[in-house]
C-alpha cells in the first residue's frame, strides 16, 4: 500500500517520465532540512538535447535472450536516437536486432481499468509490436541505473525513496501500471511513491524563496488559492489548491486535463507542410528519410518552437529537408501549392517559413484548448487568484502571452504567472514531496469508489431479480450491491480513514474475503448514488483481498471492517477483524 512506504528517507530520487522529455533529480535528507532549494538535477545527457534538465523520452534496446524480457538496454534519451541513426547509416551492425522506442507514455491514457481490457502495445521504429509494460519498465530501469552510475557513492544507501511522477488525469489502472513497471525495474514497493505532476508543481511553488513567491502573486501565502497548469509535450494537467494557515495544501476540486501539449505544435507544422505541397509523394518520401535526417529536422524545429517570442520582429527559419524529399522536389513529384504561401522550399535544400507563421497559426489551436480547460476550473472555483504555468511547453513566450491574453478577457482579476524555471517545477516538487508526503491535508475524490457486496434482502427497496438464497445461512440476500466507501467530490483528509464497512464470510471455513472494487465516474452526492454494480456507470477496477487464514473463529465472529484511505495518489485499504482488533493485509489490485 502507498501509505506503507518509508517515511524519512535519507535520499529521495524523483523520476519524471514525460511524453516528450524525461529526467531525474535528487536530494539528501540533510539538504532538505537545511535548504529545500538545494535539489540536484542530472544535466549530463549528451549533446543535442534541447532541454538541459531532461533528455528525450526514447530508449534503444537489442535482442538478447539472457536479458530481462529478452531485451538488453543499449542506451536511452538523445543518445538512443543518435546511436540508432548511426546503426542504420553505417551498416556495421544488424539493424533488425535493434529496437528504438519514442514517446510511448501517451499510450497509457488509453488505459481505463475496465474488465477484459488488453494492455496496449507499443511499436518500435520498424513497426514491430512489443508489450508497453516491458518497455516502460526498461526505461525506468535505464534512468535508475544512470543515476547510480553517475552518483556512485549512493549505491550502498538503502534508505532511498524513489518518486515516480504520473499525470493527475490518469486512471487508477494506469497509475498501477506505472507502479508495477517501477517494481519490474528493481524498485521495491516500500521504496516507491507516486506523485501527481501538477500537485508536485504546486509543492514546488509553495517552497519557492519569498522573493520568487512575491513575484508570482504571493502564491505561498496562507489563504491563497492557485491553479497549477503543467504543460508538457503531450498533455495539459491541472490541479487547484488552497494554502492552509499551517502551510499545508488543500485540493479544491478534481484534477482536470486534456491531451494537448507541445507535440500538437509539431503535428500542426507537419500537417501544414502536407497542405502546402502538391503531390502524393510528400508523406511517402518523409517516411523514407533516414533516422539522422528526421532526428535533425525534429530537433531543429523543437528548438525554434520554444525560442520564438510572442511579439518579436519576423524572422526566417530554415530546416534541412530529407534527401528523399529534395530529390522528389527536383523531379517535380512534389510541388509548392501556389495558393499557399506559408511554407516554401529554398534552393531545393531547406524548408523555409517565417516566425509569424509559427506564432500565429501553429500555436493557436493548442493555446485555445489549454485555455478552455483552465476556464472550466475557474468557472467553478471562484476563489482562485493565480494561474501558474509550468512544464516544458510553458517555457514558450508564445504560450505564456496567449494564455494571459485569453484569460484576461474573461477573468481580468486572475494573475497568470510563470516561475523562473518552469521546466524544473514538477521534478523539484516531486523530490520535496518525497521528503514531506503529507504536505497535502486533503484531496478531492474524482469518482465514487465502493465494493460489490450483499445485503439482507428487503422487499421494499431491493430489485426482485437480485434476490439470492444462501443455503449455508438460510437467508435471502440482495446481490450486486454497490457499497460506497468514497463519494465523488468528497474531500478526504490525508491519513484519515473513511467510515468503515463491515463484512463477514458467507461460507463455513472461508479463509479469505474477496470484494470486487467498483468505480462510478458519474455517481456522487449531487448526482444520486448507484444502488447496483450492474448499473451502466459502474465499472470494476480491481479487488480488495482480505486474508483470514490466521483465525479459526466461527463466521459470525469474523467481522472485518474495511476502510479506504484516499490520501495518496492511489487508494489504500486497511482491514481490521473487529473481535480481536487485528489488522489484515488488504490491497487494491487494479486488474493488474
From TrEMBL:
GO MF entries: ATP binding; ATP-dependent protein folding chaperone
Entry superkingdom: Eukaryota
SUPFAM superfamilies: Actin-like ATPase domain (SSF53067)
UniProt keyword annotation of Ubl conjugation present: no
InterPro entries the UniProt entry points to: ATPase_NBD (IPR043129), Hsp_70_fam (IPR013126)
Membrane-spanning residues: none
UniProt xrefs under Pfam families: HSP70
Keywords, comma-separated and alphabetical: ATP-binding, Nucleotide-binding
Key word Chloroplast present: no
Family: Belongs to the heat shock protein 70 family.
Protein name: Uncharacterized protein
Organism from which the protein derives: Dreissena polymorpha
Highest classification ranks of the organism: Eukaryota, Metazoa, Spiralia, Lophotrochozoa, Mollusca
Amino acid at each position: 500500500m502507498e501509505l506503507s512506504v518509508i517515511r524519512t528517507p535519507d535520499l529521495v530520487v524523483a523520476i519524471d517520465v514525460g511524453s516528450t522529455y524525461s529526467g531525474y533529480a535528487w536530494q539528501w535528507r540533510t539538504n532538505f532540512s537545511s535548504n529545500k532549494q538545494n535539489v540536484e538535477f542530472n544535466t549530463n545527457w549528451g549533446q543535442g538535447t534541447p532541454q538541459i534538465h531532461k533528455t528525450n523520452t526514447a530508449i534503444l534496446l537489442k535482442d538478447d535472450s539472457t536479458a530481462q524480457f529478452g531485451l538488453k538496454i543499449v542506451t536511452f534519451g538523445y543518445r538512443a536516437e543518435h546511436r540508432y541513426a548511426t546503426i542504420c547509416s553505417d551498416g556495421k551492425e544488424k539493424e533488425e536486432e535493434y529496437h528504438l522506442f519514442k514517446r510511448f507514455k501517451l499510450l497509457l491514457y488509453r488505459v481505463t481499468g475496465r474488465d477484459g481490457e488488453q494492455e496496449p502495445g507499443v511499436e518500435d521504429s520498424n513497426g514491430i509490436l512489443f508489450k508497453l509494460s516491458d518497455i516502460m519498465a526498461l526505461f525506468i530501469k535505464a534512468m535508475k541505473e544512470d543515476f547510480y552510475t553517475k552518483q556512485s557513492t549512493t549505491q550502498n544507501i538503502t534508505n532511498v525513496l524513489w518518486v515516480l511522477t504520473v499525470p493527475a488525469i490518469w486512471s487508477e489502472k494506469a497509475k498501477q501500471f506505472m507502479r508495477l513497471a517501477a517494481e519490474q525495474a528493481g524498485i521495491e514497493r516500500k521504496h516507491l511513491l507516486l506523485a501527481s505532476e501538477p500537485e508536485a508543481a504546486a509543492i514546488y511553488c509553495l517552497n519557492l524563496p519569498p522573493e520568487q513567491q512575491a513575484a508570482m502573486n504571493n502564491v505561498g501565502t496562507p489563504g491563497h488559492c492557485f491553479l497549477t497548469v503543467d504543460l508538457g509535450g503531450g498533455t495539459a494537467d491541472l490541479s487547484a489548491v488552497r494554502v492552509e494557515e499551517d502551510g499545508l495544501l488543500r485540493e479544491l476540486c478534481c484534477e482536470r486535463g486534456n491531451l494537448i501539449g507541445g507535440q500538437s505544435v509539431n503535428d500542426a507544422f507537419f500537417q501544414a507542410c502536407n497542405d502546402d505541397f502538391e503531390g502524393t509523394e510528400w508523406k511517402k518520401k518523409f517516411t523514407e528519410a533516414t533516422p539522422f535526417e528526421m532526428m535533425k529536422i525534429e530537433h531543429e524545429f523543437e528548438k525554434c518552437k520554444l525560442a520564438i517570442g510572442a511579439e518579436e520582429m519576423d524572422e526566417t527559419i530554415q530546416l534541412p529537408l530529407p534527401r528523399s524529399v529534395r530529390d522528389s522536389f527536383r523531379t517535380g513529384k512534389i510541388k509548392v501549392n501556389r495558393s499557399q504561401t506559408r511554407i516554401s522550399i529554398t534552393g531545393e535544400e531547406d524548408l523555409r517559413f517565417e516566425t509569424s507563421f509559427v506564432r500565429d497559426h501553429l500555436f493557436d489551436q493548442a493555446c485555445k484548448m489549454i485555455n478552455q480547460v483552465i476556464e472550466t476550473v475557474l468557472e467553478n472555483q471562484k476563489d482562485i487568484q493565480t494561474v501558474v504555468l509550468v512544464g516544458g511547453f510553458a517555457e514558450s513566450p508564445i504560450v505564456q502571452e496567449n494564455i494571459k491574453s485569453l484569460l484576461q478577457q474573461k477573468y481580468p482579476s486572475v494573475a497568470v504567472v510563470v516561475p523562473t524555471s518552469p521546466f524544473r517545477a514538477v521534478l523539484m516538487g516531486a523530490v520535496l514531496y518525497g521528503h514531506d508526503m503529507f504536505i497535502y491535508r486533503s484531496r478531492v475524490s474524482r469518482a465514487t469508489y465502493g465494493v460489490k457486496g450483499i445485503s439482507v434482502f428487503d422487499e421494499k427497496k431491493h430489485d426482485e431479480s437480485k434476490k439470492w438464497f444462501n443455503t449455508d445461512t438460510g437467508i435471502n440476500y440482495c446481490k450486486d450491491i454497490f457499497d460506497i466507501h468514497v463519494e465523488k467530490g468528497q474531500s478526504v483528509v490525508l491519513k484519515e480513514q473513511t467510515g468503515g464497512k463491515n463484512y463477514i464470510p458467507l461460507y463455513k471455513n472461508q479463509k479469505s474475503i474477496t470484494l470486487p472494487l467498483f468505480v462510478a465516474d458519474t455517481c456522487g452526492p449531487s448526482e444520486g448514488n448507484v444502488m447496483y454494480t450492474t448499473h451502466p456507470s459502474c465499472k470494476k477496477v480491481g479487488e480488495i483481498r482480505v486474508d483470514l487464514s490466521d483465525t479459526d473463529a466461527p463466521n459470525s465472529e469474523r467481522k472485518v471492517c474495511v476502510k479506504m484511505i484516499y490520501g495518496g495518489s492511489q487508494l489504500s485499504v486497511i482491514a481490521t477483524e473487529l473481535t480481536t482488533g487485528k489488522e489484515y493485509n488488504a490491497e487494491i489490485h487494479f486488474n493488474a
